[in-house]
């Protein structure tokens, strides 16, 4: 009996690190700025059938309407209330999305903006996505309600009231991030308002949360809020399931606040991952793929079971947040597919795939002056995600998650998820290969010359379809075939000018 008690205690303690994906699905996608009606359809027609574990959705709560610039993506990070009402849809549409996605084994993770409300310079009576009145100058947000008692103004020690130095941990938590009115999360009232919002979403059926701007919240305040959260809805989750938590903390080193302060609450975003991988694939700072042999904790990253990893995110794909010019995005498609493929094949971290929309990048003095553009829209109404006959997206949606190379690597990750990193090979330059036990194997050529060699794959003998150049359809390969002999060896040839200079095979792509 004692053992069972201990087991349940361990399960309880660990739960907030568990994404509660259906049958251990191992990757999720950020459908940035999608409407709820489109996400519901995508779960049923694509994400469920292709083994995606879940969707990170944009903040569903009421936000400030910013007219200048015209409806930027970032207006959704300026809350006005916790009513489920935004340009992605209303509460009924949100509930329908959660039901339909859960019913096909795809989880919903909500981007929770709980550190702050809107900017201090927003105009009283400026419009909001649900029409709630607010007045920033006297901290009046009747839609929650919040008042002057509920903000950190008195706690902040800087003259401006904004964060002025990231070397001072108290400032980073108690002052305004970019002028955003900072909530007093040390009061039980504010903690309760936030927890009520999150519990409303949990009862609807979401599986967890991205905690926006976690660096700007005291870890113990976050914990106090998490302790108020309900268990997940037993319509889809086991009794006693705790919400999955991943905290946005940008820690590239050198600041007063560290990611490790947040490990007790849940997973944490590892921003070093995308920054370093971008450098390696771009061969910057003397980096080369052969150095990836000890990728993960060997590169100074946080423990794998605390890490939330990604190649790019909604901030740094457009020059916000961290990572700078090394970050690979859909704009760098060939290298981007290799980086995402590497991430999905490697065992480190819980992996997130970015799914973006097009905007008219225009660089002036080194920065993209159009990086504020919101989603494809008709006079502010977000456009439908249309699907073309070749399964790509229309209406300005990029849908990286639907690119064959990325979609198939999500499946690869599911097939190999229980298997260890194995059979590493490199040419001491940018040709590398590695396997996952006896279930999968991947080979990259990022050198300027062809790769032609025989490698130990660890796989059973047989003929395998390369899932990068094609698919396995009706027992045939539409792309390259790989022949593994009875010793597990296979010959690989990858031209340095190939459209996608990498090959991936796994036991479910065997014919
Ligand atoms: C401006 C001035 C301020 C001034 C303020 C007065 O810059 O100096 O004090 O007016 O009101 C938008 C504008 C920004 C404006 C601010 C407030 O871009 O110019 O400040 O609104 O009016 C996103 C965007 C921000 C945007 C914010 C709110 O990136 O540009 O600010 O939404 O609309 C740090 C954090 C990290 C953060 C990252 C971007 O540690 O947590 O910066 N990342 C998350 C989200 C990100 C979001 C926020 C946090 C804020 O991923 O998308 O910022 O919720 O690294
Ligand atoms: Ca804060």
Automatic annotation (TrEMBL):
Catalytic activity, EC: 3.2.1.1
Protein name, as recorded: Alpha-amylase
Domain Alpha-amylase C-terminal per the UniProt entry, residue ranges: 422-510
Domain Glycosyl hydrolase family 13 catalytic: 26-413
Swiss-Prot/TrEMBL keywords: Calcium, Carbohydrate metabolism, Chloride, Glycosidase, Hydrolase, Metal-binding, Pyrrolidone carboxylic acid, Signal
CDD domains documented for this protein: AmyAc_bac_euk_AmyA
Residues annotated as signal peptide: 1-15
Family, as annotated: Belongs to the glycosyl hydrolase 13 family.
Cofactor list: Ca(2+); chloride
UniProt-listed Pfam families: Alpha-amylase (PF00128), Alpha-amylase_C (PF02806)
